[in-house]
Amino acid sequence: MAQYQINLNDEILHGLFQRDEAVARLIEQVLNQVLQAQVTEQLKAAPYERTEERQGYRNGTLPHTLTTRVGTLTLRVPRLRNGQFSTDLFMRYQRSEQALVLALMEMVVNGVSTRKVAKITEELCGTEFSKSTVSDLCKRLDPIVHAWNNRNLREHTYPFLIVDAMVLKIREEGRVRSRSVMIATGINEEGYREILGLMLGDSESEASWTEFFSWLKSRDLRGVDIVVSDSHSGLVNAVKAQFQGCTWQRCQTHFMRNLLDATPKSLQGDVYGRIRAILDAPDLKTARVLLNQVIEDYYEKAPRAMRVLEEGFDDVTAVLELPERYRKRLRTTNGQERLNEEIRRRERVIRIFPNRESALRLLGALLMEMDEKWSTGRRYLDMTEYWDWRKVQKETLKQASKVHHLR
């Protein structure tokens, strides 16, 4: 990644402690210097520099406004005599900013917000907005988010699928209603995480999850081997119906909470340690031995908790079948929960979305940027050992099938 040397104006730095708009001016100054550094990289020459490597010449700048939460910035975009200056600064930075600003603007334009929200909108954006401005921004942003959320997935296979839902408040038909947004994260055959898509549903029902999984499969989601989620009945039933032959791993964090809720308080510390040992067992055989010991020791003292443990054991330890290096990241939905927290940070600003389109726009823009970061950044898992393990598993099943046929 390129490193830029930034010089800051003393007057602007001093103004940070006196004027609200100084933050916008500071960011404006920094971004303008980044643009100048980028054009120097592209041309391979500084202004007025003589060098044999020069790729072209500057031809002044054009003003470009960028609407952000700290105010409207005016950036000076470099022009070139022969060719076009390219930068991803606007595209990558503005998607989520536009989506957040648009949600606030729609609240004001649709007349569903308080005067306080209207005031915040003007303070954040530095200007007032009309319906035509909202419409124009939506026309630019919506197709980008829609294309990403409906992209074809056939380029990769996704052995590991992690799914979760979160509840949003959306205004529909004059009333505020709770709606579930379902999100799927996949880990592809190369070990990179991707956000596969999001969908709004009326609730976390089996019908909603079935529609969500069917939609992912219609986009060529394939190769799913393990699905990780909480134990919501509608979700579990949809997983079993839509991904037949796959292993379902119940989130161990959610399971532990459920089990401790059923445990007398005086025993919770001891029981937690014993259950943790089961979940951290080196293999399924050891886990089952530990399970029998815990049930024998606590069945009389905590019968309800032991029933929870017995009923959930197979689903919560499914990950123990995998090579050890994959278990930690696939035994819970904690990664997905952290993603939800990132969404909540922005969603709290809105609190109540003016419509479904606004919710999909903001969440889609945020997830799109996170997906770009994941899929182009560091590899999440080294999949070599997994594919070797799968090859052995298939060969073992093949041999077992031959023996059964001979019998």
TrEMBL record:
InterPro entries given in the database record: Transposase_mutator (IPR001207)
Keywords: DNA recombination, DNA-binding, Transposable element, Transposition
GO biological process terms on file: DNA transposition
Ranges that cross the membrane: none
Keyword DNA-binding recorded: yes
A Gene Ontology molecular function term of the record: transposase activity
Keyword DNA-binding: yes
Assigned protein family: Belongs to the transposase mutator family.
Role description: Required for the transposition of the insertion element.
Protein name: Mutator family transposase
